[in-house]
Amino acid sequence: MKDLIPEQALVCLFGAPNTGKTFIALDIALSVAFGRPALSQDGNSEGNPTSRPVVFVLREALHNIHRRIAAWCDHKKIPRKQAQEHLAHHLLIPDTSDELDIRIDRSTSRRKLIDAIKQRCPNPALIVLDPLVDMMDGDENSARDMSRFVNGLNELRTQLGACVLVIHHQGKYWRPIERGSSVLQAAVDTHIHLLDATKTTRRRKKNANTETKEDNTQKIELEIFKQRDAARSPNIHIELHTVPAPDGLNVPHSLGKVPVWIEADETAQADNATSSKERKAPREAPDRKASPRKQREESRRQKISDFLKTRFKSGNNAPILRQDIEAHFKDTSPEISRTTLHRDLDALAAASDSTITIATTNAKVTVTHKKIEAKTKDLNEIPF
């Protein structure tokens, strides 16, 4: 694809479930096989591309692939018989049964695939692997296993001289990042995110109570995350058109969907930008009432502070023994335990007070009045 997918490149297309990843990949593959502009972008291509062989390795919805190809041919107005004869020499869909399990990170399995392609579809221009998780034996979250997979992809494209397009799944919670290790993102030449705004959590909540009408199109967007050797292309807006089954054909619902390049809807684009950028202002913490335990603690420490201020009101800074404080509160506030009393004394000593400073030792407590600058010469206005 001009200005999007270079020749002999390593490309990753990822997106959330049911956003049309396979339909996009199939449109690109069939467009290369028939020598037509991809995504029906007739006005965006120069001349007529050359028809070239394509390999499509599919592990998901394999039973539907021929129906989807028929839908694409009907939408492009290509006669079925003509399409069948042409694709017999230009499209290879390898057998992905358990007996011939294809794992790109296994050297023996990869070698079998390369030999089969050389024999049945020599010199392919494009190899599509759909999806990644079914094409590797290792753990997609492991950097070591993903590195083996990437090395296998590079061997495919160097041995066959083809562009390799890998279809991958998106991470959880609709985050715009592919699943698994970031080794793949670093290795690919082109990184494409398939975005469906209606699938995001924010948009689903927004449209939860709105009435929707039946529509045979689904609007999606290709967001170019990375272009190694060129400037990143602008986002591509696409509609997935549902192709109905011909009358008299025993096929449920429809044949499939075909992606069509459309001009960006300025209103929808502005709405998407606003919805993605808008952020709720942080809520202020509510004024919560202190817990009963906190209230008892504040009341208890206030009693201790008042006692110390009263005891040292005369200005005598001689220390007072802890046992004397214990004796006082044992008589006046027997609910205050000895351990709690000493803990509160240490807490009061650590806290700052505008009028007094409390110093504690293992046996004594000393209260010192802070010097306050009086605004008038009347010393009686100075507290304590």
UniProtKB/TrEMBL annotation:
It comes from the Bacteria. Residues 211-221, 276-303 have a biased composition (Basic and acidic residues). Pfam families: AAA_25. Residues 199-221, 267-303 are annotated as: Disordered. SUPFAM superfamilies: P-loop containing nucleoside triphosphate hydrolases. This is AAA domain-containing protein. The lineage of its organism: Bacteria, Pseudomonadati, Pseudomonadota, Alphaproteobacteria, Acetobacterales.
